[in-house]
Design brief:
- The protein has about 300 residues and is an all-alpha fold.
- The chain contains 13 helices and no strands.
Length: about 300
């Protein structure tokens, strides 16, 4: 189990943290919309690569300026965090390219359910019995969403890729909890070290999808460069805001508030990008959001993780 936070959190700090999490959720939602705009001409893996590249630059700048302390200890868990976090973003952005920002974000943000199951398996964090209801709701919702996307084989395949991105994200966030557990000498990995593993290994994971053998490079236009820069900046700012807020709120609170990302991406896709969410996918979306919300309520911990679950 993680060590308790030695410093008590005041009500003012909690309110500020909640407001910061809301801001980060909106930024993550806007990032998904920007990724969808970019992916109309730029392949999803290439968009993901630019997101990680901006993150790497931020880490390097922080390290050079002395703001970030990078002293990795638990290389195995950090490697899992980076590889599966990178794979989650790779699949998520590829899913955005093919099925839209709203649907891809909905599927990707089922990750708390998979993190709950993986935490039980890998870390011995047994969920409460009520979590079975959440799991049933979420899985039923995912089935509805995926089945509603089967009007073409390609859409069905990429909907499944969206689910796999959530599973990979669940593995990544489970590894975060592992590396942030304090050892006997009271040491744990810093947030910057975890973020560096995510961006560094994540960048490496995306390269085969951009320069082969899984994809190809598309030269961005001046407009594309602007949108790609927006994706990178939005993701880094949202991540840093979330990391700051998680010092004073629980993982359950974060999970609930971050369902706003699904709402922002879905409504933004419908209002501005011509996306549709009707029939079984709409039913599935309602069930999935309900299941994920129930999951984070039943698995909330007194001590929150320091960084985001996957995307």
């Amino acid at each position: 189990m993680a060590a308790p936070d030695p410093s008590p959190t005041t009500h003012a700090q909690t309110r500020q943290a909640v407001a910061t999490l809301v801001a980060s959720a909106f930024l993550f939602g806007f990032m998904a919309l920007a990724a969808r705009v970019a992916s109309r001409r730029i392949p999803g893996p290439e968009v993901a690569m630019f997101r990680f590249a901006v993150g790497v630059l931020v880490v390097l700048a922080a390290a050079v300026s002395g703001r970030a302390s990078l002293r990795p200890r638990r290389w195995g868990w950090l490697l899992l965090r980076g590889i599966f976090g990178g794979l989650a973003v790779f699949l998520y952005f590829s899913c955005i390219e093919h099925v839209g920002a709203g649907l891809a974000t909905l599927l990707n943000y089922t990750s708390p359910v998979w993190a709950m199951l993986l935490g039980w398996w890998l870390l011995g964090e047994r969920p409460r019995r009520r979590a079975a209801v959440a799991l049933a709701l979420t899985l039923l919702g995912v089935v509805c969403v995926v089945s509603g996307s089967l009007h073409s084989v390609q859409n069905g395949i990429w909907a499944v890729a969206g689910v796999l991105s959530a599973v990979a994200s669940g593995i990544a966030v489970t590894s975060i909890r592992a590396v942030r557990r304090r050892s006997e000498d009271g040491a744990s990995e810093s947030s910057w070290t975890v973020f560096a593993s995510f961006t560094g290994f994540g960048l490496l994971v995306t390269l085969p999808g951009v320069f082969g053998p899984l994809g190809h490079w598309v030269t961005p236009s001046p407009f594309d460069w602007g949108v790609l820069a927006g994706v990178g900046v939005l993701s880094v700012v949202a991540q840093l805001l979330m990391t700051q807020a998680l010092e004073h709120v629980t993982a359950g609170t974060m999970g609930i508030i971050h369902q706003l990302i699904v709402v922002v991406a879905t409504l933004g896709g419908v209002l501005f990008l011509g996306e549709r969410l009707t029939g079984w996918p709409l039913v599935g979306a309602i069930l999935t959001v309900s299941g994920v919300a129930w999951t984070v309520l039943t698995t909330a911990r007194a001590v929150p993780p320091p960084v985001a679950p996957g995307a």
